[in-house]
């Protein structure tokens, strides 16, 4: 749906100018920030960086605090001096992945280094550079205008890289403190073409394990083959009742809760750029997964999966071994689309296992709800317009992404729309050596953040 | 079929007396023999023990030689001074398993030690004590009567413990040297009750591997789940077309060649002792393999199997991993009943794979033909009668055993009946630490060997 791009207000233009004038200082402060390790998996630097952030937020002009959890603390900042104006919640995470393997880094992960227009450092893209851009956008508005166009809550988590084990409880227990109209997360990469993107949802997920055991020990496949049941066959036969070769998941009731994609979802998918041959070539694929006729994005956005993550039993070494193994196990995950829930899905998988293979042990492994915002959400229009103002180009709009993030804590627990707006370049190498962010992306991130506040503060 | 036991002839009684009188010397010579290691897997002592055997055979009064192969030599002995009389081929193997783990032996594996009526030594049961008993039976006949009741060929292999890789070619290339009326192998254990046994056949086997690969690398189950095909699912769906949960192998044509069990086979099975509850308890089984209604011995003797020896792909560590793996593999073996052949079966499996999952790589792994002798073979009656003369009790007669031995080289290449008549106790611990043979079993083995020669030499 091509449309005329909006023009920045005088208020926003003044902030954009401020950002342009202060690029050097912003970059220097970013480098100071990412120099501090904050590795949640190893509990390194977490407290220090949380304290550093609270100081930064206060200096910018926000009320700020760390809120303890049973794990790493949440950092909360707020500016709520516009009664009646809308409130945006900006979510990010201040923890980073461990930097291993160190020997593959061209410059040390916590000595930020600029090469060819990029800053290299652990956490620069995921997520410090991105939420720091948001904070600088807030600062710029306050410096230029002495106030913000809207109310703002900043929530920075310290455990995202270890699976956000406490975010759901935290949000549920602090609804009042987090009361906002909608949520924007600046995280992840933009499109490889450099075009900005925005995302209206994520798939949820749940996982489980299946274990079969028959004899008390491995036996000889000749001496007892035909007599002793084979746990690998038991699992093969069970699995084959759960999904057909044509790609249809056949667990009874699994699809019951699914909300089919709307006309707007389908229209949005139809607008998405796609080079299928290129995608297949990059993955070394001769074909896509069954069913063959399903569209590329539909696969990732509108359908659950049943992925076997691993199957292990019996002999796997070189050559042959005439063994009839006594045990085998399978690990699976299921990606959930709106409005499936891990609890319901696990209950249905368990019922299926009980019915088809009562001997098999079923081990549920928890999960994460999906999250969706309607494509015609007025907050979607605000986000789109902010991106257009900052970039001068319309974003690619994804109704949903295939992977899972705990966005449901905002959409389902707080009950407000939540969007993801990546500021980083597509080759940011997050979770990998030589993680980096283009300087241009950082500056455009600040501009996007500034435009976002401007649009949230515009009359609705 | 209970029947009156036969009485030994005067000729045999004289030999039995000789055996009784020379027990001590026989035991001493057995100990001297098993003291020599002959570990085929490590090529230790093979040449020495082959030469020792040739010397022994010559001293007993046989023509003897080692016949080189591309591996370890065959030892051949022969006494063929009775034109017109029948010829028995006695097969055994002079190589032994490696003795590891040494620390579990109560006395050193190559220092034969007598404790509580048993000799402990590597190879004492498998197979040195057993074929040595046969040689002493020959010697006893020659000592007492100056001649044998029949013609005898002794064939002792030096590579049985590494899978007999050259026995088929050797037999095919030396048909004239091995021309005999039938073959008896003294190997394996008797029934746990102590009752002697004899076996008319073995299942054959073949094995193969299936490998599936789709993407060129593992991918994230969220980011690409639904897009990238899963090789574990590919193998699960392929395998589920090969055997039903009810236990029916559904590979087209696989059963074509099968010769169903005869009435005599069924009658023999009906006579076999069976304590099913005890068998299940020893294996820790709640049930037998599907199909449920099939008899215990029928499973092992009259039906092929399709055993998955191993299935490996994807993540198998603790907890969960949201991976969509790029490759997986399965190893299978199929036990063959008369008259299936590895070549035909592998061709049919391959055709099945080509038809149902052309993407899957099929890797054949060779195999071994089954072997069967009809239950009413006149040579079976000779063997039975010899066992009855030596033990004073009728043997348990197995139409077939579940495991695979290269007996087909006699039944299918030489084209003569072949029987297995174990001399060792059921707890001989072959292939394990503290391998042993009861002295009583050794002496009864010599008597059985002597009675066998007597019956082969009796007028038919």
Essential attributes:
13 helices; elongated; 2 domains; 4-stranded antiparallel sheet; Aminopeptidase; 460 residues; alpha+beta; 20% strand; Alpha-Beta Plaits; homodimer
How does this model look, in words?
- The structure is a homodimer of 460-residue chains.
- Chain A folds into two domains: 10-202 and 370-456, 3-Layer(aba) Sandwich (Aminopeptidase), CATH 3.40.630; 204-258 and 304-368, Alpha-Beta Plaits.
- Helices cover 34% and strands 20% of the residues of chain A.
- Chain A is built from 13 helices and 19 strands.
- The first copy, chain A, has helices spanning 10-21, 23-34, 46-60, 124-145, 167-173, 231-240, 263-271, 276-283, 296-301, 342-356, 378-391, 408-414, 439-456, and strands spanning 63-67, 74-79, 87-93, 113-115, 118-120, 151-157, 182-185, 197-199, 201-202, 204-213, 219-220, 307-314, 323-324, 327-336, 361-368, 371-372, 396-398, 418-420, 436-438.
- A six-stranded mixed β-sheet of chain A has the order 1-2-6-3-7-18, sandwiched between helices.
- In chain A, β4 and β5 form a beta hairpin.
- The first copy, chain A, is elongated and about 85 Å long.
- Chains A and B meet through β10, β11, α6, α9 and β12 of A and β11, α6, α9, β12 and β13 of B.
